[in-house]
Design brief:
This protein has about 290 residues and is mainly alpha-helical. Strands 1-2 form a two-stranded antiparallel sheet. Helix 2 runs antiparallel to helix 3.
């Protein structure tokens, strides 16, 4: 039970990173490999607020706002010039951005480890005479991710904004002819994705120490979650995150922590062999 609860909590954080990747993919058809580094910068800014005696909720607000701003700036200044180039160009640009942001974080905040507070208790809840590996903070993480998922589902399925974002990603020229401000719509996609990524950074920070590369492993697992669920499916990213989190927890608990990465890799390879487009991707090819 402890391994399951721990896996669900970690999986929720992986799901948040997966949701950010899905958002950008649906909006621009680009995989942002700098997503974790962008979240790391936002979390450092939130930690600075706390160190200057700001409240936890103010720090979270700063993280979300700074993440959204970073996402918009990156899309406008870094990604937009290569959007119409071969797909590999965007991959190289985001990988370069990853290196730059981690270097900047090291220069500004140093390479040492820092702690980030948790507003809720991280002590496991007690049921009868037994304490389980699930705390008030873990419940807060799960609720936050469920709320984000609900907002994204409503956005993409039931709003004109979500429809414009999808149209801009798949057929930008047709969308322009129909009056859609494609440039602003793509910026909005990056803005929302960066805010979700920043939330993931703040949620995972109390569980591990802050450092310029503390989000690297989380990003890898979030990317695995997005691919397992399907890059076009927000609910799939959440399910993929839970699958990844549970796999890591069970492998680490029953086999050994050194084989956790191998467990996630095996699941990813199995899904790609059986259903390369992801478990929750539409079976029929999308037609425009």
């Amino acid at each position: 039970m402890d391994l399951t609860l721990d896996g669900v909590t970690n999986g929720a954080i992986f799901a948040a990173v997966g949701l950010a990747l899905v958002l950008i993919w649906r909006a621009t058809r680009i995989l942002n490999f700098a997503q974790g580094a962008m979240a790391m910068i936002s979390t450092y800014l939130a930690a600075t607020v706390v160190e200057h005696h700001g409240s936890y909720w103010l720090a979270v607000a700063v993280a979300l706002a700074s993440g959204a701003l970073i996402g918009a700036v990156v899309e406008r200044l870094v990604v937009r010039p290569v959007e119409r180039r071969p797909p590999l160009n965007a991959v190289i640009v985001t990988l370069g951005l990853l290196v730059v942001l981690e270097a900047v974080a090291g220069l500004v905040w140093g390479g040492g480890l820092r702690s980030f507070p948790a507003y809720f208790s991280q002590v496991g809840l007690r049921f009868g005479h037994r304490r389980v590996a699930f705390s008030d903070f873990d419940a807060y993480v799960l609720v936050a991710i469920i709320v984000v998922l609900g907002v994204l589902v409503v956005l993409f399925r039931f709003t004109d904004t979500g429809l414009r974002m999808r149209a801009s990603a798949f057929e930008p020229e047709v969308a322009r002819l129909l009056g859609v401000r494609v440039g602003r719509t793509l910026t909005l996609g990056w803005l929302l994705a960066a805010a979700v990524g920043a939330l993931a950074g703040v949620l995972v920070a109390p569980r591990i120490f802050l450092s310029p590369n503390y989000m690297d492993a989380v990003f890898v697992y979030g990317f695995t979650s997005a691919v397992i669920g399907g890059l076009d499916s927000p609910p799939g990213a959440v399910v993929g995150g839970l699958v990844t989190g549970l796999a890591l927890s069970y492998v680490g608990g029953y086999v050994g922590s050194s084989l956790e990465d191998l467990g996630a890799l095996v699941i990813l390879i199995a899904v790609l062999m059986v259903r390369p487009q992801g478990l929750f991707a539409p079976r029929a090819e999308r037609r425009v």
